[in-house]
Amino acid sequence: MASVCSCSLPRGWLPSQPGRVVESRTRQVPMSVSESGGGVPVSSNSSFSNLPVVVVVVPVYSGLEQTLACLDSVFADEPKRVRRRVLVVNDASPDPDLARAIREQATAGRFALVEHQTNLGFPSAVNRALDYVEHEPGWSGADVVLLNADTRVAAGWLDKLHGASQSRPRVGTVTPFSNNASICSVPFAEGCEVDSSLDVGHLDAAAERANPGHVVELPTGVGFCLYIRRECLAAVGRFDVAAFGRGYGEETDFCRRAYQAGFLHLLACDTYVYHEGQVSFGATEGDTRRLRAEALIHRRYPDYPGGLLRWLRQDPAGPARVALALEAMRGSSRPVILMVTHRMGGGVERHVQELRYYLRGFAWVLVLRPGEKGGSVELSIGSAQPERLCFDLPVDGEPLLAVVHAAGTDRIHVHHGAGFPETTWPLLNQLGLPHDLTLHDYAIVGGNPTLTTRAGRFDATRDARQADDQSDPVLAFSLQALARSAERCIVPCPEAGRVLNQALPWLTAEAHAHPDREAFGPYLVPHPPLLKEGEPMRVLCLGALGREKGAETLRDAARLARRRGRPLEFVLLGSAHIPLGREVKQLGRYQDKDLAGLLANARPHLAWFPVHWPETWSYTLSAALEAGLPVAATDLGAFHDRLGARPWTWLEAHPVSVERWLEVLMAARERLAMASRDGAVWSQKPAAAFYREAYLSKACRGERVQSVLGQERLCRFHCSYYSRGPEGRRPWLLAIAMRIREWPVLGAILARIPYPVQRRLKRLLSRQPLH
Question: Does the record bear Acetylation in its keywords (predicted)?
């Protein structure tokens, strides 16, 4: 774990020239103004003078705004259990404004100041501060807190860290929670830089309410804010500058030496300190130093990697992190929404994550999914890498409701019901909360999400309620019950609502575009690339193609084009559930964040969507529209709604034969080959800000009662944040089967297995989408 061995340093710490003798000088402040420069007025109160002294050491190099904010936050606190002293070490800052500001404050008696004439690095700055503390009258024998200059603290922080240091015998160091502190991080707080509700005061208060006096043993302290007991300093000594030079790993080395000397390292779960965090040496040099430091740590302490790994797997701090997150939600003024969705990924999962991100700063979001094993559910708290709590239903129904209540949940938004135990819905009904239902597919009709036949084709003349291989009456019944009691039923496009209403006349749904439409604004008017003479037209298909999305149509069209000598080049950026053959150039899977760049590199002339079912939105279509590509698509579902009247677009009425698609693509090629480009216009209706405005209008804050969940209770359901392996060997077996498909002989045999049987076999191996 590289981040554990790394030392968090103030912005701009630079390497000194090797072999140079470095001088240092000390600036002391007038004793009449501040007692030894610590910012605490001299008091005749004997009880105050008997309090232990704690020296806060702040090494400084650069970052004027961050440093002054850090110092202001330190002095805004008025400790009641300790006498605070503050020592700033200016390690030859190249910023004259910063140097001048801290000199002025030191002269005014706010703190003591040590200045280096040459930049020495973090370990040397800390050792110089420790030497100063040891020899300064009234400071000797004090506990020390090493505090990065890019941190901010809240009221009471020092008293709580001191209390944690006294909570057990032989405590060496104490580290608080933070947004950016390696193993002491709170993932829930990762967005604090852009979310004012995640300020240090709010989260520290939540930590104190959720985890009063609670501590957890750590394998090592973390240097951004490290409280060190004087007994530990006396026994262990200084940072090892000779071995670790200018930084990285020195605090881990110190903590391991302390551990060998019999001292404990604790996490103060009731304290939160904000840490901006930055790369101190530059990317290349920083990586080199980190790797060298890790190797040295592992050689010196061969038991450390294994101990760290065991700690991560056990994750004893997890329940305290969860308690902090729940209390932060409950104690805020923002609504809390419980999103309920399946665990199969795809567009539904993307919408949930997109909505969670889009609502950041406006509402809190919890997510409930089916668990990895049957009969269980998983509650996620956080965003990109959330905390997880797992419950077996119906046995753990009451604890699940208690956790949801503890967050102060105001509303439920159901996105899908596939995979949930039947007991889930009566249980959620006990919450007594209003709910919305978004229909991302057509499973509400009969359990069939695509309304397609066994051949993977949508038939508008067929009774949509007719059972087929994908029918799931239990799922359909649950969704229909949810729809009847929902305050709002939402569909992503009007055409999806029309199809649903035709199958279920009692169902009325509101059509609201997904947030990516709101966020992007008006789409680009297509400006197709010029097709050079003799150049084949590059036809791009996007995404993960199953039978319903046209994988077989792509394969057959490419083969037909080759046989007929058509100047078309077929490209798939994504994946397919069948082998496509050499006629299709496959670029492989992609991450959504990389898609725009990959599209630019592929330089397609046209995006093609040969779908066979009325999709309700299509994020791959969004990508094509955002890129301004010409589009050819089946006139079904979202494609009908989103592409109407768009220039450089070819819509074909369903069903479309492969021969007809070839004619359409050749017609598009002829038009693209024209030298002139007409001044196309596209009149687009502005996207309503539904998810930022009307959506939240019903998510009002109700009365909240504080719910105390004990650490032992949360520990029973918590899943380690650091243990996120695959679902056993089943995905591995599926991957082998997917590779075997590509072998000519075995692939031909597998292709003869009926599609519904392939689907069922795949479902046994993975719950991810079929493709």
Answer: no
Write the pLDDT tens digit of every residue in 261-307: 999 999 999 999 999 986 333 344 456 777 788 888 889 999 998 89
Helix 304-314 and helix 283-300: axis angle, to 10°?
A: 100
Instruction: Return d(Cα 120, Cα 21) in angstroms, integer.
Output: 10
Tokens 């400071």, residue located: 139
Same domain? 360 vs 302: no
**Partner residues linked to 173 by β-bridges:** 228, 265
Q: What are phi and psi of 455, to 5 degrees?
A: -85, 0
256 and 144 assigned to the same domain: yes
Residue after which a domain boundary falls, among 285, 314, 343: 314
Please give the mean pLDDT across all residues of the chain: 85
Higher model confidence: residue 593 or residue 144? 144
Averaged pLDDT for residues 339-354? 94
Residues 303, 372: one domain? no
Q: Give 692: exposed, middle or buried? Use CB within 10 Å, 0-12, 13-18, 19+.
A: middle
pTM: 0.85
Tokens for 541, please give them: 């298909």
Euclidean distance between CA atoms 99 and 64, whole angstroms = 9
Lowest mean pLDDT among 42-46, 124-128, 604-608, 690-694: 42-46
Q: Assign 3-state DSSP to the chain and report helix, strand, coil percentages, each to 5.
A: 40, 20, 45
Instruction: Say yes or no: 354 and 497 in one domain.
Output: yes
Of the pLDDT bands very low, low, confident and very high (cuts 50, 70, 90), residue 702 is low
pLDDT surpasses 60 at 599: yes
Beta carbons within 10 angstroms of residue 326's beta carbon: 29
Tokens of 313: 């797997």
> DSSP for 678-721?
-------PPPP-TTTTHHHHT------------HHHHHHHEE-T
| CA–CA separation, 766 and 727 (whole Å) | 8
Cβ-based burial of 582 (10 A; exposed 0-12, middle 13-18, buried ≥19): exposed
- What CA–CA distance (Å, rounded) separates 234 from 134? 10
Instruction: Report whether 544 contacts 769 (CB < 8 A).
Output: yes
Choice between 728 and 73, residue whose per-residue pLDDT is larger: 73
Q: Is residue 110 part of a domain?
A: yes
Look at the block and give the residue holding tokens 């240090």: 200
pLDDT category of residue 26 using cuts at 50, 70 and 90: very low
Pair 755, 633 in one domain: no
pLDDT of the residue at 48: 64
Structural Rg of the chain based on CA atoms: 31
Confidence at 16, pLDDT banded by 50, 70, 90: very low
Residue 345 lies in a domain: yes
pLDDT at residue 9, rounded to an integer:
29
State how far the Cα of 479 lies from the Cα of 664, in Å rounded to an integer. Answer: 39
Does a structural domain hold residue 691? no
Q: What is the CATH number of the domain that holds 53?
A: 3.90.550.10
Kindly report the CATH number assigned to the domain that includes residue 358: 3.40.50
What number of residues does the chain have? 771
Report the domain count for the chain: 4
Helices 619-627 and 595-602: crossing angle, nearest 10°?
Answer: 60
Residue with tokens 């009566």: 426
Q: Which domain holds residue 406?
A: 334-519+713-719
The pLDDT tens digits of the residues spanning 418-477 come to 999 999 999 999 999 999 999 999 999 999 999 998 888 898 888 876 656 678 899 999
Position 262 scores a pLDDT of 97
Q: What is the C-alpha separation between 346 and 432, in angstroms, rounded? A: 30
Residue entry with tokens 């698509």 = 633
In the numeric block, the tokens 């008025």 are attached to 78
The Cα 185–Cα 208 span in angstroms is 16
Give domain status of residue 329, yes or no.
Answer: no
Asked if 41 and 186 sit in the same domain, the reply is yes
Task: Find all residues with CB under 8 Å of 747, minimum gap 6, and list them.
Answer: 579, 740, 741
Please answer whether residues 596 and 573 qualify as being in contact, where contact means their C-beta atoms are separated by less than 8 angstroms: no
Residues 484 and 581 in one domain: no
Nearest Cα to 697, choosing from 528, 529, 554, 487?
487
